[in-house]
Design goal:
Strand content: 15-25%
Order of helices and strands: EHEHEHEHEEHEEEHEEHEHH
CATH topology of the domain at 4-149 and 182-210 and 253-268: Rossmann fold
Oligomer: single chain
Helix content: 25-40%
Length: 285
């Protein structure tokens, strides 16, 4: 593989990509927002090497804050990916841009295919969709990879939060009316690295998540079970108990059929991935 550049390398997926690439012996360089502003064409041109593979993990991910700060979200999520695509086109580099289930309305009853109609209901979703269109409109050979419910099990993500709350509270209430596909960052990173090594695939949109689906309640119960706690301590509730500025999609399951048809390795079932994630965090500690 050509030299790999990971933008947004300080985020959970960016860190996972650096770790998995290094473990596989892939030459990799990571840059965060302080090292390169993806909205700045001069900075992008100075950072991206000719023939490189760029995986863009940089994003404005504060979903609620974006509702009142859409201009900033649009710069990072919409303008920035377009700048990267234009620079990659000039440099003969390949771009893989990571996107989100939030580009959909979230009211489906079956997994979203890559060609399903989009209809974001949040500022975050609108700006991420703008980024997808900027990338593919500028560099049709690029890949846009949508994913959902990404976690590492460490830090402040949902899985890590459930582990903390299990230690701090007798019971926890978790919404049971939002369904998606929990995705372990290291599994997604492995999938993106496999994609980056494929030079024979036409550009376009792909979906990559761990297999199967769950509600946040299901995921929380699974976390409790993994750490040896009683899952009954997790109690279901509705989204109306946790009203937020940005509405969460009721249904975020993505159809990964296109990923498999492209000859890429499907990510393992989410429950198996969760077991591995929690085991990995415990081992590091």
């Amino acid at each position: 593989m050509s030299t790999l550049l990971v933008t947004g390398s300080h985020g959970q997926l960016g860190r996972a990509l650096l770790a998995r690439a290094a473990a596989s012996g892939i030459p990799v360089r990571g840059v965060g927002s302080t090292e390169m502003d993806i909205t700045d064409p001069v900075a992008a041109a100075a950072t991206i090497e000719p023939g490189a593979v760029v995986i863009n993990c940089a994003a404005y991910t504060a979903v609620d804050a974006a509702e009142s700060d859409e201009a900033r979200a649009a710069a990072v999520n919409g303008t920035g990916p377009g700048v990267l695509a234009a620079t990659c086109a000039d440099k003969g580099a390949h771009l893989i841009h990571v996107s989100t289930d939030y580009v959909f309305a979230g009211d489906a009853t079956e997994p979203y295919r890559t060609d399903a109609a989009t209809g974001p209901r949040t500022a975050y979703g609108r700006t991420k969709l703008a980024g997808e269109r900027a990338v593919l409109g500028t560099l049709p050979s690029a890949h846009v990879v949508r994913t959902a419910w990404v976690y590492t099990g460490d830090g402040t993500d949902f899985v890590a939060t459930m582990r903390r709350l299990e230690r701090e509270r007798d019971t926890v209430r978790v919404v049971d009316d939002q369904r998606g596909s929990p995705t372990y960052s290291h599994d997604l990173a492995d999938g993106l690295l496999e994609l980056a090594a494929r030079t024979d695939l036409p550009g376009g949109v792909l979906h990559a998540t761990n297999g199967g689906d769950a509600t946040w309640f299901d995921l929380a119960q699974a976390v409790f079970a993994e750490v040896g706690a009683d899952p009954v301590r997790v109690q279901p509730c509705g989204s109306d108990e946790f009203v937020r500025p940005a509405p969460r999609p009721a249904y975020s399951v993505l159809d990964g059929g296109g990923w498999a048809r492209a000859g890429l390795t499907p990510l393992r079932p989410w429950r198996d991935a969760l077991h591995a994630a929690i085991g990995s965090v415990d081992t590091r500690r």
